[in-house]
Amino acid sequence: MAVSKGETVHIIITDAWLAKSRAMHLSGIKLAGIAVLTSLLVMLGSVAAYHWVFLQGVRQGWLGFGPVARLVTQGEVDSKELYMRENLDAMARKLGEMQARMMQIESLGERVAGLAGLKPEEFKLNPTPGSGGALVAGRDLGLTELTQAMEQLDRASGSGVDWLTVVESRLFDQKIQRTMVPTEEPVSGGRVGSPFGFRIDPITGRSALHTGLDFPADIGTPILAAAGGVVVVQEIHPAYGNMVEVDHGNDLITRYAHSSRVLVKKGDIVKRGQRIAEVGSTGRSTGPHLHFEVWVSGVPQDPARFLAAGETLAAAQLVPGARRKP
Q: CB under 8 Å to 49, separation ≥6 — which residues?
């Protein structure tokens, strides 16, 4: 039994079997809360029932549920297709940029291959026959076509890496060879005295073969290694005085004579331009100078030719766009 008094509802519950009664007092706020809770429960139950019935209808193929399901999901499908198309378009643009970059790398590789002494026409990352024609109609790339293009680009880049590795190896070999050829002046800025060839011997006054170049300089002037190599001789010679010989490989040896002090010993590895001795006047000499010789396969050569080649190479490296003469 419910009794309303003012804004309070009194509910009295009686139990005939136990002959007991219980009273409940509900204010307006409690009643409003109960009403809201009841409404939420009814709404949740209705939504759950709707989804259960809808899903069952779609799964079981009930009449009329198929078109409704397509109508509901059409917007979601369209959104997914639009998202995929935007991603494919972005990937296609990126692929175009990568292909353009590969063309730049190919062009650069051809020039570098020419510097390495290789045939530039062999440097082709993606050799394809010429093609063209009028553009009749364009269409967007599909996922399959885009994947194939990316795989082709990956193969081309792999071939390019292999080829550039060959070019790098060739350039490294050339660099090593240049560092092992005596083209560095053994006395920095020094002038040449007696040249290579026959001359009047300054001690005997008779004609004799001068097997090197003389560089007059003050005692203590640094003597530099004309190229990298290994010291094979460091001794005091009756004619050459305090002498050093450096082996540069390929039966090529340089000799530095008449020094006042030697800064290296046999077995040392020296670099191009390294200070190995100091100018002096030891041995068969009339004054302080460096006697510099170049020997190839046991035959003395004119050192001036090697030094001139070094000057030519240095000048070519300083001039932008300069090319070596064949």
A: none
Give SS3 for 30. Answer: helix
**SS3 annotation, 211-265:** CCEEEECCCCCEEECCCCEEEEEEEEECCCEEEEEEECCCCEEEEEEEECEECCC
Handedness of CA 90, 96, 97, 102 (dihedral sign): positive
Going residue by residue through the chain, which has 326 residues, state the pLDDT in tens, using 9 for 90 and above.
544 545 555 556 565 565 566 666 656 677 677 777 888 887 887 777 666 666 666 566 666 556 655 655 555 555 666 667 677 777 777 777 777 777 777 777 776 776 666 665 555 555 555 444 444 445 566 667 777 777 777 777 766 676 677 777 767 666 666 667 898 999 998 888 899 999 988 888 898 999 999 999 999 999 999 999 999 999 999 999 999 999 998 899 999 999 999 999 999 999 999 999 999 999 999 999 999 999 999 999 999 998 887 776 655 554 444 444 43
List all residues 6 or more positions away from 302 whose beta carbon is below 8 Å from its beta carbon: 195, 196, 197, 294
Distance CA 33, CA 41 (A): 12
Q: Which pair of structure tokens corresponds to residue 307?
A: 């030094």
Tell if the pTM clears 0.85, that is, is over it: no
Instruction: Give φ, ψ of 61 to 5 degrees.
Output: 75, 35
DSSP 140: P
CA–CA separation, 26 and 4 (whole Å) = 10
Residue 65 tokens, joined:
């549920």
* ∠ CA 82-84-89, rounded to 5°: 95
Q: Please name the helix (run of DSSP H) or strand (run of DSSP E) that holds residue 2, with its range, or none.
A: strand 2-5
